[in-house]
Recover the amino acids of this structure.
């Protein structure tokens, strides 16, 4: 229960990695707000956890409306008087529009970069004055392995996530004097509904050939790393960009091909 008496917000957290983080934080003793646009679903998910004796509430947040971030922070402050942990979990990409540099339109590129980066910037900027006043806090940005390893597509998503990695380090340096820690967690291929629904079996098989731990991650495994950064166990850790990807991108680029050659022998 190392998050006892902590108040946390997790954006875009009605499912997948976000919901796993909410569940983990609540089991670790925190009061957690599910921040989402679909309030009906958010309340349904909060009720499930409340019935387990966990402290979970909801707050409205529309990632596509800039004013929504300030409203989200102010509502939680009004209710609880403080925010100890902010997890910027929102992220999006349209696989049919977020293409390579030759194919993507400027509008689709800049819109994808903007919404991913803005979601981190605005919520962080809104929470900082409150964390300063209370003597500190922890901001955790959910980025992606795509922000480290270039892809053959999803130019906007990868660029946005790479920018989030840099923003994380900048904020960490600038906010350390207020005892506000800022870190980023970069999931690899994780077994969420979004991955199951949007990626073909062939693509997943190909991707995992280049992943030393030969499987997709579980959302709970991402949540475990996030919980570390949220807790006082990481009180001396800030500005870290940690990928939780099963080692994807770590070996030689021909790693997958070499394994395939060995299998054929």
């Amino acid at each position: 229960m190392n998050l006892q008496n902590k108040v946390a917000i997790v954006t875009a957290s009605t499912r997948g990695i976000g919901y796993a983080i909410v569940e983990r934080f609540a089991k670790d003793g925190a009061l957690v707000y599910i921040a989402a646009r679909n309030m009906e679903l958010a309340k349904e998910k909060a009720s499930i956890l409340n019935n387990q004796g966990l402290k979970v509430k909801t707050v409205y947040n529309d990632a596509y409306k800039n004013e929504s971030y300030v409203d989200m922070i102010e509502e939680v402050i009004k209710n609880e008087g403080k925010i100890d942990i902010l997890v910027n979990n929102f992220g999006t990409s349209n696989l049919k529009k977020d293409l390579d540099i030759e194919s993507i339109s400027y509008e689709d590129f800049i819109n994808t970069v903007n919404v991913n980066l803005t979601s981190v910037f605005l919520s962080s900027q809104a929470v900082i004055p409150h964390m300063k006043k209370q003597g500190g806090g922890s901001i955790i940005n959910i980025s992606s392995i795509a922000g480290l390893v270039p892809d053959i597509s999803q130019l906007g998503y990868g660029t946005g996530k790479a920018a989030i990695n840099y923003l994380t380090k900048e904020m960490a340096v600038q906010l350390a004097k207020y005892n506000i820690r800022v870190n980023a967690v970069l999931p690899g291929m994780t077994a969420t509904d979004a991955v199951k629904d949007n990626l073909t079996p062939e693509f997943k098989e190909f991707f995992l050939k280049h992943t030393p731990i030969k499987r997709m991650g579980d959302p709970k495994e991402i949540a475990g790393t996030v919980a570390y950064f949220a807790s006082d166990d990481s009180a001396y850790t800030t500005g870290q960009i940690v990928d939780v990807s099963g080692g994807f991108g770590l070996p030689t680029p021909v790693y997958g091909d070499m394994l395939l050659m060995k299998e054929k022998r």
Summary: The CA atoms of residues 10 and 87 lie 5 Å apart.
